[in-house]
Amino acid sequence: MQHVIVIGGGVVGLTSAWWLLEAGYAVTLLERENAVGTAASYRNGGQLSYRYVAPLADAGVPLKALQWLMQDDGPLRFRPEADLRQWRWLASFLANCTAGANATTTARLLKLGELSRKKMGELEVALPLDDFSWRDAGKLVVYRSRGVFDAAVGRPDSEESRQVLSPAECVAREPALADAEGVLAGGIFNSGEAVADCHAFCRALEDRLAASPRFRGVIHGAANGFMIENGKVTGLDTTAGKLSADSYVLAAGIQSRTLADSAGIYLPLYPLKGYSLTAPIRATDRAPEVSVTDFERKVLYARIGDKLRVAAMVDMVGEDTTINARRIAGLTRQVRATMPRAADYDHIETWAGLRPATPNSAPIVGATKYPNLWLNVGHGPLGFTFACGTASILADLISGKPAPIPLAGLTL
């Protein structure tokens, strides 16, 4: 039986391990933290946006970015680094800021999103939905600018069933927006989008992995680098000692780029730092039932169990996970203004995490120059959304099967 080591115990690594077990492999999972799902998967936005996959890079984004940088509570913050990787990533990002590149990547990600939705449905047979507060809530994207709203309505959309709503219809669909009706230009609603607790999903999936006789367990230790001999990976140096297997899967979030460097592989990843607030919902609160995205402000709202999760912002500040009090204060002000009666904002829990993004927002899955080293990286803010899809693709490729969707633009 072939043995695979999966490096990374976040949602991407765990789903990779699951589909490899399903394909008949023996699997060991390496996770540097003391528990799975405690980095980028811990308190992310919780939205499973299979049909709303807009890449960050688009025409007009560089100008918008300059405007955002001038705003105290703007969605973007940038700190220059003496790190060539930051500038190389930025150069590639700017090259992707065209309408044509955005449309091409969007089409690819829509196919991946549909595959992920299907694969999540298969996994739900083995993983009870209640274990991770999964809800088929639908997604409402609201717009504050008439021009931005009209442009969004006019763009080609893969879903004929999308509903274009007036401000009043947005409030009728989601009453939690009542206090914001006067500043809205309209909204677009899509059914079939879901919300869930990604961290709880990771824990539940770990339990299911442990029940498989082919699962060799979770090793808690940090990977230091690959050992290469005669054109293949012969081992993995870790703080838990040297580990060996027949094949290796790199799914370690932003740490993947440093580990890939040890094997002479450049991964075009950069950590986009995001923040989230989690606030308890009281009986008297009017929390949103559907997931909501405030488009211009780049703020996401999702009801997860008895909590309201709000996620936002992109800080390009390197591998810095400290919580910036000013950013949290700014986000809290925006949330109180938009949904003042949705939750108990006096008792919020704050979090920051690093989303490993590629310049065009497309994840990287598949082979490397080494026959026994594979990649599942670069999911950015859509790790939870795309994890099941890329994991199933990876298992097919390692097994020598054709990919279920075209992989152009999704490989190294």
UniProtKB/TrEMBL annotation:
<dbReference type="InterPro" id="IPR006076">
    <property type="entry name" value="FAD-dep_OxRdtase"/>
</dbReference>
<feature type="domain" description="FAD dependent oxidoreductase">
    <location>
        <begin position="3"/>
        <end position="397"/>
    </location>
</feature>
<dbReference type="GO" id="GO:0016491">
    <property type="term" value="F:oxidoreductase activity"/>
</dbReference>
<dbReference type="Pfam" id="PF01266">
    <property type="entry name" value="DAO"/>
</dbReference>
<dbReference type="InterPro" id="IPR036188">
    <property type="entry name" value="FAD/NAD-bd_sf"/>
</dbReference>
<comment type="similarity">
    <text>Belongs to the DadA oxidoreductase family.</text>
</comment>
<protein>
    <submittedName>
        <fullName>D-amino acid dehydrogenase</fullName>
        <ecNumber>1.4.99.-</ecNumber>
    </submittedName>
</protein>
<keyword id="KW-0560">Oxidoreductase</keyword>
